[in-house]
Design goal:
- By secondary structure, this protein is of the alpha/beta class.
- It has a single domain, classed as 3-Layer(aba) Sandwich (Uracil-DNA Glycosylase, subunit E).
- The chain is built from six helices and six strands, in the order E-E-H-H-E-H-E-H-H-E-E-H.
- It has a six-stranded mixed β-sheet with strand order 1-3-2-4-6-5, sandwiched between helices.
- Helix 1 crosses helix 6 and helix 3 crosses helix 4.
- The longest helix has 22 residues.
- The two termini are 27 Å apart.
- 43% of the residues are buried.
- The mean pLDDT is 94.
């Protein structure tokens, strides 16, 4: 399955994003083999930095380092996919400024809802940053009639257990992009959250 052939934005209606950066994963994925979905913020300003871009894109470098920090020995996004980890963004276009409006996050959550439905065997969802958390809450409100993650600072809520249906949801911090190398305390918490998600999956698969 190629995800970009199954889902996408119709009309690109949002006004506060860079539509030239619009991207949906266009790699071949075995949907039945995916056990974890990791959702970050938005598409990068340079398409060459996206998870599945050729070479050694920035999103790959920071994400691989995050998994290595957690004790998961991988070298590439392809390694992660083969392990059953699918990487995507909550917002499929790029940012124009520092933030993304609530209206845009809500609009793009329609695509995320369809995207998550492509993977029937997912047991863990990692929400990397506030935008991903807001997007998943829109998804679960629309799908289940309630939000999954409560309001509050991530560092206060990240150690509790949350579920979207039968899927365990882990709120964390953004791992994709240059800020990952700067904020050491968040980097440590990201590693802890990835480690906890992987341990949960290991128990499930045994």
């Amino acid at each position: 399955m190629i995800v970009s052939k199954c889902i996408g934005c119709k009309g690109l209606p949002c006004l506060d994003v860079d539509k030239g950066c619009y991207v949906v994963p266009d790699v071949e994925i075995d949907p039945d083999g995916i056990r974890m979905v990791m959702i970050s913020e938005s598409a990068p300003a340079d398409r060459g930095d996206y998870y599945y871009a050729d070479g050694d894109p920035l999103f790959q470098r920071t994400t691989v380092q995050a998994f290595n920090d957690a004790g998961v020995g991988v070298k590439s996004v392809r390694d992660l996919v083969e392990m059953g980890v699918y990487l995507t963004t909550a917002v499929k276009c790029g940012k124009k400024g520092y933030g993304i409006s609530s209206a845009t996050v809500k609009e793009c959550s329609n695509i995320l809802l369809e995207e998550l439905a492509l993977f029937p065997n997912v047991r863990a969802i990692m929400l990397m940053g506030d935008v991903a958390i807001k997007a998943l809450n829109h998804v679960s409100s629309r799908d289940l009639g309630k939000r999954t993650i409560p309001a509050g600072s991530t560092y206060k809520i990240r150690e509790e257990e949350y579920f979207y249906g039968k899927k365990r949801v882990f709120p964390s911090y953004l791992q994709a992009g240059p800020a990952f190398f700067i904020e050491k305390s968040k980097r440590r918490m990201i590693a802890e959250d990835i480690g906890n998600a992987m341990k949960m999956l290991d128990r499930f698969l045994k």
